[in-house]
Every structure is written in structure tokens, then in C-alpha cells.
Specification:
Order of helices and strands: HHHHHHHHEEEEEEEEHEEHHHH
Strand content: 5-15%
CATH superfamily of the largest domain: Butyryl-CoA Dehydrogenase, subunit A, domain 3
Number of helices: 13
Largest sheet: 4 strands, mixed
Bound molecules: flavin-adenine dinucleotide
Distance between the termini: 19 Å
CATH architecture of the largest domain: Up-down Bundle
Helix content: 40-55%
CATH topology of the largest domain: Butyryl-CoA Dehydrogenase, subunit A, domain 3
Shape: globular
Number of strands: 10
Structural class: alpha+beta
């Protein structure tokens, strides 16, 4: 139960929407060029409790449930994509991995520091030389003191511009061909042998910093091991499962905003003596956009209810992958229809009905974040076969 009343929570959602579509969009105009968030962005996020709201109450949070967290996520995802990427992470992986797998000692020291962004993290799985999942090459080999020596590289890592720690998944048992090859670590930035190399600008989501992580004989104290040695694949896969549903909630916020922009333009634009919203072809597009957006919301809410019942439940992985995959299809359709409905002027910046061109670019990152559609399909098919097609719902 959240410490906010239902009325207070609804007010909070409206406040976050106003922030995302007001001050955040104003700040983003410059960020599109500089690709760097000014301090003002972080300050506004702190003032509006965005880093804090998803945390359990014992660590200074609102103690929101998963459904409420995903609703907050939907609201700020209506705004600039780079800010969404940062805040989406803040609401979930940033603190959740430490909360789920950190030792009591690490949790006592760092969990309260997430509430005001005193501590921020990045999550490092992907490697240029390997695939996602168990196909990793960065090693963490135990030395004579029982500490771990990291060697290798990670790429495409978000939030390297503003983090103090990296969650790193590395090979601790190279001989094993099984799931116990990998372990997870909470690695402080700035320790010897750990370097961050910035990456170039992206297509969209401007401002969210990305980099490569390079480890050369980097000694990590054994206290930073998360969970047990050999539990790394589980840490990564469980954490990503939840995060995939958060990607779906982000896509939902974007779809809703794109639908509203298209509706406003279609009501305003008159051709051959009539607003285009009265044309059957436009109405069909609107119907398709609404259908996908509504279905996506139902899928996201269903995931949230299942997660609230049991975060490690039998259908969580499958439902999260379905949510992410369906949200890509929804976003594809809704963003294409928005672009077409908004005509030539919608392709330009400063479009008076909303940031159609930026939303279109920002949305494309969603195809890849937390695994490409093919990976979601592989996951869904595996789980579906295991369950022989059955799926359960929390009614
Ligand atoms: C904006 C952005 C932010 C990101 N942030 C992070 C982050 O913070 N941390 C992190 O660890 N990673 C991050 N990533 C990496 C992201 O998770 C990967 O890009 C994504 O999982 C795809 O992996 P890849 O880039 O290695 O693609 P590749 O492995 O090069 O794959 C290319 C295509 O082939 C498909 N493919 C590859 N192998 C197989 C296979 N065995 N079977 C079927 N299809 C296959 C892929 O699905 C993909 O469609 C980020 C990526 C982006 C774009």
C-alpha cells in the first residue's frame, strides 16, 4: 500500500505529466543540440520525487506498487525520450538490482542514497564481441585474497555520464558451459583499471549519455559481488524481465501522446472544406491507434498485477517479453499513423501540436533497449512451449 492516498497519487500523475510536457520539453530544445542534460533537469527530477517515488518506504520512497510505478512511467514518457530513458532506469533497474541481490551491508550503505540521486548506476551486459545472455567474454577471476579481477569491455551502456556504480555481468567460471558461468557485481566507477569511453550521439533520446566500459586488471572487492557466485545470469535475466515491462509502459506513454497530437492536428487541419478528422481514412487510422494503445495498456496493467502477486511468478518472464514486443508493434503503428496524419508540417521541429518528429526518433530506441524483438520472440516461444500455451491472469 502506497503512503499516498488515491487522490494524492492521481494528483502526482498530473504533476509528472505537466513536468514532462512543460519544463522538460523546454529544457530539451537545447539538449537536442548539446546532447547533455543540464543540472536543472536532475534538480527538477529530484524536486518532483521521481528518483524517490518507486523506492520502498524504508529507503525514503513512496512505496508505490508496480502498477502505480508503471503509471508514473507512462506519464513522464510523454516527454523527451532521453529524459524518459534516464528516469525509466531511475524507477527500476537503478535500485532494484541492489535491493534484490545486494548484501545487507551494501544495501544499508547505498539503498537510501538512491532517493536523491546521491547514487546512480548503469547496467552493463552487452559486449561488442558477444551476444546478449550467456555469450559474454568479460572475465572476473578470483585472486588470492578472494577479490575479483575484471578484464574485458562492455558497450552501448546507458547513463555512463551520470553514474557512480556499474552493475556488471561477467564470467567467473569460464570452464562451465551452464548458467553458472556468470556472476554480477556492483562496481564503483573510478577504481583503478576501470575506464569509461563516451559514445557518439544517437538518432534520438538526446541527452542520455552512453559509453563503453573498459576493464584492465581491475580489482573489485569481494563485498561487491551480488547474490552468489554463478548467479549472474539469473540477476541479469530477472532484472531485465521487469525492465522490459517498463519499456512497454514507456511506449504506452509515447503512444498516448502521439495519438493526442494526431487527434489535435486532424481536428484543426481543413482540406477541401472539411477538417480531415471527418474523413473516413483518417478515422480508420485513429481507430487503429486507439486499439493498439488500449491493448498495450491492458497488457502493461496485467503484467503489473501478476508482478504484484508474485514478482518471481511463473509467467513474469513471458508476460514481460510479450509486453515489450507488443509495445514495439503498437509504437510502430501509432508513430507511422501520427506522421502520416500530421502531414508534411509534422515532419518539422516546432510543430505547434507537439513534438511529432522528436517522438518518432525517440521511440526507435525502444526496439533495442532491453533486447531486440527477436530476443523477445525467442523468450516468449520458450516459455510458451514450457507452459504448453497456457497463461494465467490475476482477475
Ligand atoms: C539506446 C540503447 C541503450 C542501450 N543501453 C544498454 C545498457 O544500458 N546496458 C546494456 O547492457 N546494453 C544496452 N544496450 C544494448 C542493447 O541491449 C542491445 O543493442 C540489444 O540487446 C541488441 O544486441 P546487439 O546490439 O548486440 O545486437 P546484435 O547482437 O548485433 O544483433 C543484431 C540483430 O540480430 C539479432 N540476433 C543476434 N543474435 C541472435 C540470435 N542468436 N538469434 C536470433 N537473432 C539474433 C538481434 O536480435 C538483432 O536484431 C543499449 C542499446 C541501445 C540502442
Amino acid at each position: 500500500m502506497s503512503k499516498l492516498s488515491q487522490a494524492e497519487f492521481q494528483e502526482y500523475l498530473l504533476k509528472i505529466r505537466a513536468l514532462a510536457q512543460g519544463p522538460f520539453e523546454e529544457i530539451q530544445k537545447e539538449v537536442e543540440v548539446t546532447n547533455v542534460f543540464p543540472q536543472e533537469f536532475y534538480d527538477l527530477a529530484i524536486e518532483n520525487d521521481i528518483y524517490r517515488c518507486a523506492l520502498p518506504e524504508e529507503y525514503g520512497g513512496y512505496g508505490l506498487n508496480e502498477l502505480e510505478i508503471l503509471q508514473v512511467q507512462e506519464e513522464f514518457s510523454r516527454g523527451p525520450g532521453g529524459m524518459r530513458m534516464h528516469l525509466h532506469y531511475a524507477l527500476d533497474l537503478n535500485w532494484r538490482i541492489l535491493d534484490d541481490y545486494g548484501s545487507d551491508e551494501l544495501k544499508a550503505e547505498y539503498m537510501p542514497k538512491f532517493q536523491n540521486k546521491e547514487v546512480f548506476t548503469c547496467f552493463a551486459l552487452t559486449e561488442a564481441s558477444g551476444g546478449t545472455g550467456a555469450d559474454l567474454h568479460t572475465t572476473a577471476i578470483k585472486n588470492e585474497n578472494g577479490d575479483y579481477v575484471l578484464n574485458g569491455e562492455k558497450t552501448l551502456i546507458s547513463h555512463t555520464d551520470c553514474c557512480e556504480f556499474a552493475y556488471v555481468i561477467a564470467v567467473t567460471n569460464p570452464e562451465s558451459m551452464k548458467d553458472d558461468r556468470l556472476s554480477a557485481f556492483f562496481v564503483p566507477l573510478g577504481i583503478e583499471g576501470f575506464e569509461v569511453v563516451d559514445m557518439p550521439h544517437m538518432m534520438g533520446c538526446r541527452g542520455a549519455g552512453h559509453g563503453d566500459l573498459i576493464f584492465k586488471d581491475c580489482v573489485v572487492d569481494k563485498k561487491y559481488l551480488l547474490g552468489k557466485e554463478g548467479q549472474g545470469l539469473e540477476v541479469a535475466m530477472h532484472s531485465l524481465s521487469v525492465s522490459r515491462a517498463h519499456i512497454a509502459a514507456s511506449n504506452l506513454g509515447m503512444c498516448q501522446r502521439m495519438l493526442e497530437i494526431a487527434l489535435d492536428y486532424a481536428a484543426d487541419r481543413v482540406t477541401f472544406g472539411k477538417p480531415i478528422i471527418q474523413r473516413q481514412m483518417i478515422k480508420f487510422k485513429i481507430a487503429n491507434m486507439q486499439m493498439m494503445t488500449h491493448a498495450l495498456r491492458c497488457i502493461v496493467y496485467d503484467f503489473a498485477k501478476s508482478f504484484m502477486e508474485n514478482p518471481t511468478g511463473e509467467y513474469i518472464t513471458e508476460k514481460a517479453a510479450i509486453a515489450k514486443l507488443f509495445s514495439i508493434d503498437s509504437t510502430r503503428l501509432v508513430s507511422d499513423e501520427m506522421l502520416e496524419i500530421c502531414g508534411g508540417i509534422g515532419y518539422f521541429e516546432d510543430f505547434k501540436f507537439g513534438p511529432a518528429e522528436r517522438l518518432y526518433r525517440d521511440a526507435r530506441a525502444m526496439w533495442l533497449e532491453e533486447g531486440a524483438p527477436s530476443v523477445q520472440r525467442i523468450t516468449i516461444a520458450r516459455e510458451c512451449v514450457n507452459h504448453h500455451g497456457e497463461i494465467k491472469y490475476v482477475i
